[in-house]
Amino acid sequence: MKTLHEVLESADRGHTAVGHFNISDLVGLKAVYEAAKALNLPVLIGVSEGERDFMGVHEIAAVVRTLRKRDDFPVFLNADHTHSLDRAREAASAGFDMIVFDASVRSFDDNVRETREAVQQVKSLRPDILVEGEIGFIGASSSIHDERPNNMSPLTTPEEAREFVSATGVDILAPAVGNMHGMLKTMLRGETEKRIDPARIAAIKAAAKTFLTLHGGSGTNRSDFEAAIRAGITIIHVNTELRVAWRRGMDAALAQKPDEIVPYKHLPQVVTNMKQVVRERLELFSANVAVPPSG
Ligand SMILES: [Zn+2]
Q1: End-to-end distance of the chain based on CA atoms, in angstroms?
Q2: How far does residue 265's CA lie from ligand 1's centre (Å)?
Q3: Residue (of 132, 175, 138, 174) closest to 153 by Cα position
């Protein structure tokens, strides 16, 4: 079976992107894994520090490892938005395939220094682990907002991206290119969409020469996703849309059977709702969009 690095290389070459979906529990894992397996597409499971605290770092690592081995299927585990060296080392020791080290809220120089330290420390524990760094703060929370966070960073420049990657040694870079964590209420109602800057992605890709991740994919315009992948995005994160599907599925199940107390009679509705989001996103991310001829 391919390693995560090989999966990313093959997506990069084929101008497709690998879907990354955050989960909080085994219900979410079931939905993401079943959808990916049905489509026979590699998938990244993401758990933030809060999601890890709820599930247990070693518990989720054990489950994902067991699924991958049992089914010989390319499912990988990412320690999403890890803010401290302790948490990064903890995830590396537990067997995670990848770590997103996020010091994006710091100054550029501090971000470089801390991320470089994280890369050195986790790779000394696990030389095969992949580390992603972040430039630009794009909001902290995958939840529903009234308006755009007012402390978002300016978009990442190709020069910053090149300097950050060469100074830190990260395998993967997450730039700020118009994306944002969470969704606005107007996006939930279908009135607005996130717009991405594909020309900037192409310039960053050419400068940084590494894999690029798009965080905060929920609520993004469909053709912007396609253009972002064409321009060089290799991993796309979706969390808020899954959380919305979870909540709506749970509300519907409880409303349909108000007297039911058996969890596994309510939860299939949640799984169905979440699977639909994962399936639609994976189909879009894996579609090989036509690449304009170069030159
Ligand atoms: Zn993120």
Answers
A1: 36
A2: 32
A3: 138
> Measured in angstroms, how far is the CA atom of residue 255 from the centroid of ligand 1?
32
Length of the chain equals: 295
Rg of the Cα atoms in the chain: 18
Residues 73-107 have pLDDT tens digits of 999 999 999 999 999 999 999 999 999 999 999 99
Task: Measure the CA–CA gap between 257 and 263, rounded to whole angstroms.
Answer: 11
Tell the residue number behind the tokens 């529903």, with chain if given. 144
Q: How far is the CA of 250 from the centre of ligand 1 (A)?
A: 24
Q: How far apart are CA 93 and CA 23, in angstroms?
A: 20
- Is this structure's pTM higher than 0.70? yes
C-alpha separations of 35 from 38, 104, 179, 182 in Å: 5, 32, 25, 22
Q: How far is the CA of 232 from the centre of ligand 1 (A)?
A: 18
Single-letter residue type at 57: V
* Distance from the alpha carbon of residue 13 to the mean position of ligand 1, in angstroms: 24
Over residues 164-174, the pLDDT tens digits come to 999 999 999 99
Measure 258 CA to ligand 1 centroid, in angstroms. Answer: 35
